[in-house]
């Protein structure tokens, strides 16, 4: 697949405040197409706010955001079918069954993935007729991921995709994200797990207090594996993850 | 090996099929919820049966037979329960569980989401009307049939739904889900008892002149006009339009999708 020169995501000087709290403070970020990019940072670093601004939920208070070359607020209707969004939590009715919900989201898209295959792949078939509100955290996360990819997006935003998953489900998720990249999908994920960023990402952006602290490939950031990413992270943010 | 092809092929389904899917989903969820069904069907039917039995022993000096007076009122009650209480509670929990937020990131536009809700609500209301009418007929209800009456019924249903649903959305958009649940049920009970919905506002004495301006009283009186007199209630329907405008304005000003 040919990769257009234009980056998948471009953020310039983004500022977002909630009252007196500055969540994002002049952030610059470029995400190339066809990559898996991890945005790493401690709690309250501004990861989710940045993602939600890229998804068009929030209007930038200052700065410029371009996603697939579009303004995510002004061109939201054109952009939404092209991106997949996995929220940090929730996103389904309390009484809905997992596969029923996935089928519903699929029906909103023009060329959805095979729902049964995707459900099997992510172990949602086991959820049966259990209502969403009684699914385990890991099951809810897997449904969230399935809903994000079912529409065959070009660009996928996943907010802490493996939080609450057991190790097997985490592996399944990593494999799926790698497969998406191989198929030409750009993946942007936020995470607390250093290991996840190290194993999965082509590019890692460390942000803290709403600013970009450090960017690079995992190999570059760890000096070819001589240092642990966790130590680099700690040194740059002064925070334990 | 899985046969999943992840290569990007994005696109929105046609709006009409998105709205159909949304309406089907919302209808299924409404009918699955036991508490909502209690409110939507069981309570109205019990009120109808209990009222018809009770009013043969109590003299409220109604001008018509109890069953003819009560069935239109119970139809109004059923519509109120779905359009107000069910809509408020369901929407409150949709905000709480992030459903509105999640669908906000799907190809379904907000107008499509609202259209889906309206269709689902109308489907449930039609089921309620059929069921309550059947119970009424079994109890001896003999409505007066006329073109004007049918028009009056449809207008009452549509305008009553619009006014109660807009007020329900206002509630759900302002309060937390639990508070919405409590308030929506409380308001339903208060209007059931004192809102001139099941019994005509004229039977409430002096309070009747207030009650007939409530959305419950206006809807109840409009239903009674349709089925007792075979007429369009030109005095009550503008009141419902007014409440719909108030509710719509408040919702538009305050509603947040998260």
Structure description:
The complex is a heterodimer of chains A (241) and B (258). Chain A has one domain: Rossmann fold (3-Layer(aba) Sandwich), CATH 3.40.50. In chain A, helix 6 links the parallel strand 6 and strand 7 (186-191). In chain A, helix 3 (98-107) runs parallel beside helix 5 (137-149). Chain A is 32% helix and 24% strand. Chain A has helices spanning 47-54, 76-79, 98-107, 115-121, 137-149, 167-182, 194-200, 218-221, 229-237; strands spanning 9-18, 21-31, 36-40, 62-67, 83-86, 155-159, 186-191, 203-208, 211-216. With 241 residues, chain A is an alpha/beta fold. Chain A is globular and about 45 Å long. The longest helix of chain B has 31 residues, at 66-96. Chain B has ten helices and no strands. Chain B is mostly helical. In chain B, 73% of the residues lie in helices and 0% in strands. The two termini of chain B are 39 Å apart. Chain B has one domain. Chain B is elongated, with a radius of gyration of 20 Å. The A-B interface holds A 1, 55-57, 77, 80-83, 85, 87, 89-96, 100, 104-105, 107-111, 113-114, 117-118, 120-121, 132-133, 147, 149, 151-154, 179-180, 182-185 and B 2-13, 17-18, 21-22, 25, 29, 32-33, 93-94, 96-99, 101-102, 104-109.
Assign a percent range to the helix content of chain A. Answer: 25-40%
- One letter per element, helices H and strands E, the order of chain A comes to EEEHEHEHHHEHEHEEHH
Alpha-carbon distance between the two ends of chain B: 39 Å
Coarse structural class of chain B = mainly alpha
Instruction: Record the strand order, biggest sheet of chain A.
Output: 5-6-7-3-8-9
**Counted beta strands of chain A:** 9
Number of helices of chain A: 9
Order of helices and strands of chain B: HHHHHHHHHH
Based on the coordinates given, report the CATH architecture of chain A: 3-Layer(aba) Sandwich
The CATH topology of chain A is given as: Rossmann fold
Question: What would you report as the Rg of chain A, rounded to the nearest angstrom?
Answer: 18 Å
The total of beta strands of chain B comes to 0
Outline type of chain B: elongated
* Sheet of most strands of chain B: none
Membrane topology (chain B): Multi-pass membrane protein
InterPro entries (chain B): ABC2_TM, ABC_2_transport, Nod_factor_ABC_transporter
Keywords (chain B): Antibiotic resistance, Membrane, Transmembrane, Transmembrane helix
Subcellular location (chain B): Membrane
């Amino acid at each position: 697949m040919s990769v257009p020169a234009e980056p998948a995501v471009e953020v310039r000087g983004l500022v977002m405040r909630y009252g007196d709290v500055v969540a994002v403070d002049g952030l610059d970020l470029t995400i190339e197409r066809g990559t898996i990019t991890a945005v790493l940072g401690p709690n309250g670093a501004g990861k989710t706010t940045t993602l939600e601004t890229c998804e068009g939920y929030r209007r930038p208070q200052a700065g410029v955001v371009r996603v697939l070359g579009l303004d995510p607020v002004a061109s939201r209707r054109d952009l939404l079918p092209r991106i997949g969004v996995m929220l940090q939590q929730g996103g389904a009715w309390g009484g809905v069954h997992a596969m029923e919900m996935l089928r519903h989201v699929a029906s909103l898209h023009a060329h959805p993935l095979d729902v049964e295959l995707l459900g099997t792949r992510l172990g949602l078939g086991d959820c049966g007729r259990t209502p969403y509100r009684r699914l385990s955290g890991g099951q809810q996360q897997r449904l969230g991921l399935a809903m994000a990819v079912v529409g065959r997006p070009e660009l996928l935003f996943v907010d802490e995709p493996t939080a609450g998953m057991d190790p097997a489900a985490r592996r399944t998720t990593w494999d799926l994200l790698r497969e998406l990249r191989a198929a030409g999908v750009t993946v942007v994920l936020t995470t607390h797990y250093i290991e996840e960023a190290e194993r999965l990402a082509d590019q890692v952006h460390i942000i803290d207090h709403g600013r970009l602290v450090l960017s690079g490939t995992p190999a570059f950031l760890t000096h070819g594996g001589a240092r642990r990413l966790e130590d680099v992270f700690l040194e740059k943010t002064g925070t334990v993850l | 090996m899985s046969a999943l092809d992840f290569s990007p092929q994005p696109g929105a389904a046609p709006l009409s099929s998105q709205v159909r899917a949304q309406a089907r989903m919302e209808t299924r969820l409404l009918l699955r919820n036991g508490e909502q069904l209690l409110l939507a069907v069981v309570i109205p039917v019990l009120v109808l049966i209990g009222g018809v039995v009770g009013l043969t022993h109590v003299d409220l000096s109604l001008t018509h037979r109890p069953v003819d007076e009560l069935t239109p009122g119970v139809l109004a009650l059923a519509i109120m329960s779905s359009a107000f209480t069910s809509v408020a509670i369901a929407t409150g929990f949709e905000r709480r569980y992030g459903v509105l937020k999640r669908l906000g990131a799907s190809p379904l536009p907000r107008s499509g989401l609202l259209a889906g809700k309206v269709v689902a609500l109308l489907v449930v209301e039609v089921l309620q009307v059929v069921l309550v009418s059947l119970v009424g007929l079994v109890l001896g209800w003999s409505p007066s049939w006329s073109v004007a009456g049918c028009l009056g019924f449809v207008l009452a249903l549509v305008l009553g739904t619009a006014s109660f649903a807009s007020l329900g959305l206002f509630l759900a958009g302002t309060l937390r889900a639990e508070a919405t649940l409590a308030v929506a049920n409380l308001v339903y009970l208060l209007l059931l008892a004192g809102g001139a919905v099941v019994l005509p506002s004229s039977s409430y004495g002096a309070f009747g002149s207030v009650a007939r301006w409530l959305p419950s009283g206006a809807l109840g009186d409009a239903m009674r006009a349709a089925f007792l007199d075979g007429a369009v209630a030109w005095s009550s329907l503008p009141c419902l339009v007014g409440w719909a405008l108030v509710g719509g304005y408040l919702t538009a000003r305050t509603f947040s999708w998260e």
